[in-house]
Amino acid sequence: MAEFNVRWARTADVPMIEKLIEPLVQERILLGKDRVVFYEAVQEFRIAETHDGEVIGCGALHVMWEDLGEVRTLAVAQPWLSKGVGHALLDSLQNDARELGLKKLFCLTFEVDFFTRHGYAPIGEDIVDPEVYAELVRSTDEGVAEFLDLARVKPNTLGNTRMLRIL
């Protein structure tokens, strides 16, 4: 039996999500977000927790377009690294994506080896049709701007790799 389980996030988990990702924000591995953003997106999150309720990981799936989603804010508590938590969270998010009818998943990451092991590959710039690009560019979502590699987000994404997986 696994030492942890993966479940949907609840609003009560938001402070724990913030605490979990704070070290990664400080290291500039993840972008910091205001608490309100986490509450607005809580239904996108999955939580990994121990059987005694300790939150040890999180990840979110954000729908970007008809067939395209983004894996966001995937984080695992330091003592739980390399114990299958990230894998379990990513599997859960990918299953959610399939249920929603998504065919492609994007991520922007420093963890290239982890995502490569899970079927993701680095991508270039022209991965959506011009018509879709024209629609996506209207989004106010920073993740969409990162996906499109827009100039306004480049200072926040230096060194990250844009990756894609076909489901």
TrEMBL record:
InterPro entries: Acyl_CoA_acyltransferase, GNAT_dom, NH2A_AcTrfase
Residue span, N-acetyltransferase domain: 4-151
Keywords in alphabetical order: Acyltransferase, Transferase
One GO term describing the cellular component: cytoplasm
Organism superkingdom: Bacteria
Gene3D superfamilies, A to Z: 3.40.630.30
Keyword Cytoplasm recorded: no
Pfam families: Acetyltransf_1 (PF00583)
Single GO biological process annotation from the record: L-arginine biosynthetic process
MF terms in GO: L-glutamate N-acetyltransferase activity
Protein name (record): N-acetylglutamate synthase
